[in-house]
Amino acid sequence: MKKTLLLCLLAASFTACQQNNNTQAAVAEQATKPSTPLQVVNDTIHLVQPDTTLTTTLMHTLSHRSSIREYAQTQLDNETLSTLLWAANGINRPENGKRTAPSAVNAQDIVLYVTMDMGTFVYLPKEHALQLVCTTDLRKAVAHTQDFAAVAPLSIILVSDLTKFPFDDPQRATLLGAMDAGYVSQNIYLYCAADNLATVARGTMDKAAIQQALQLTDKQIPMLNHPVGYIK
């Protein structure tokens, strides 16, 4: 009995040390990687190539996935935002345009909007760039009744374009769009956990204000949003 207890304690201690070492390695890796400020040129933010060489293990990432509601004020750099958006719903198979996140009948209905102090942009996966939609900072509309979300340096809005589904069944399309948003949301969570960022998935937002500002139709539905920032 004592031997078994001792072995359990040793195993737990080893696991804790490994997780601590992985966390320290992730922080060190983040501190040494290139950092380029976001810059708008002709209403476009050209993103650098995503960094697909992160060494964090899947098990470490899963063990650190969590909802975090406090954020440092520092704006994400180009490298971090580039990899975040690619991980969320970028193209990982250029030969056929398929994405990092699955979608029902490969509709690819989820469109990502990034809102921050310099305006609100739509993510273009093929160009791997952000295109200005409006100069309005919609973080307060995204936060709505939860002020903590407005403090994050940016928020990602997940919109399902129901017209992408090859059938005329609004109820079914809405259900599948919500499901597809969930896949993208988890990708955001996992990348944030892997790269030492803070985020939380939220359904709360002023959808009417967001739809009006982004000039969305009644078939383009904001499903979820993710405030994202460096860990405070």
UniProtKB/TrEMBL annotation:
All copies of domain Nitroreductase, residue ranges: 63-230
Task: Return the InterPro entries for the record.
Answer: Bacteriocin_Proc_Enz, Nitroreductase, Nitroreductase-like
The organism's place on the tree of life at top rank:
Bacteria
Q: What is this protein called?
A: SagB/ThcOx family dehydrogenase
Originating organism: Candidatus Gallipaludibacter merdavium
Parts of the chain that traverse the membrane: none
Do you know which CDD domains this protein is assigned to? McbC_SagB-like_oxidoreductase (cd02142)
In the record, what terms sit under GO molecular function? oxidoreductase activity
What keywords sit in the KW lines? Signal
Its taxonomic placement starts with: Bacteria, Pseudomonadati, Bacteroidota, Bacteroidia, Bacteroidales
Keyword RNA-binding listed? The answer is no
User: What Pfam families does the record point to?
Assistant: Nitroreductase
The cross-references to PANTHER family, in alphabetical order and at most eight, read:
NITROREDUCTASE MJ1384-RELATED
Signal peptide annotation: 1-18
